[in-house]
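Thread title: Can someone regenerate the structure for this chain?

I was given the following input by a collaborator and told the matching structure tokens would be attached. They weren't. Posting the sequence so someone can regenerate them.
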Amino acid sequence: MRPHWLKIKLPTGKNFNEIKAILQERRLHTVCEEAICPNIGECFEQRTATFLILGDTCTRRCGFCAVKKGSPFGVDAGEPRRIAEAVQKMGLRYVVITSVTRDDLSDGGASVYSETIKSIRKYTKDCKIEVLIPDFVGASGALETVINAKPEIINHNIETVSRLYSQVRPMADYKRSLELLKNARGENRSLTTKSGIMVGFGEEWNEIIDVMMDIKNAGCDLLTIGQYLSPKRNALPVRRYYTPLEFEILKSEGERMGFNHIESGPLVRSSYHAKMQSDSILV
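Best answer:
Regenerated them for you:
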């Protein structure tokens, strides 16, 4: 049974229904819906959403994720334009773009990220853009393609401690993900970089501190820390629920490490309060 601090309200409200209608009308996906995010009601009601590009089917088998897994079919060429139209209609001034992982594509979908960023810029001139990218399997030039489209923030989640990668992210690589973050900062020193982790998989406290330090040493400015909540029956089980006080302690630890901003709490997700996080360091 989940502790009381993880209770959430059922999603409802005028803005919530309007955002749902806009997304359905343009045949768009959000990670809010596909990943069963606990904050969907709050975020939609505040007219924010994290768009999910490259379809709704992921080629990987991460043990924590509710997104559909399988063999995707092709790429929807009209998706970037429809997202740009939705951003304009929703009146967004900050948008997060993420994707399923597409290991079937030669560039991992980097070119679609680039096209989506450019389309949003065309429709909405003063909208800041954060991209939450996969590792592109280390594909040569993929990261550069995204960076050249000039998003304000590049986010890549480490998700968990190194020891648990084979269980939590069996098709990913801890060192490769850290290298991506380092390379993102190396490509453009003015670019803001961000990462996130979840706790509750069975990690030890000292391992959490170690992964936070690894992320900081990779040059990250922003960090999110949240409680893992098993999204479906066959997903990894929750091994431990961390208290709000423990999340506050982790935030303090991260501040001592030198992160510019840390969002740490039981219901925190990578894109939760993303605009507020960016406002803390972007001019």
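Residues 182 and 218 are 5 Å apart (CA to CA).
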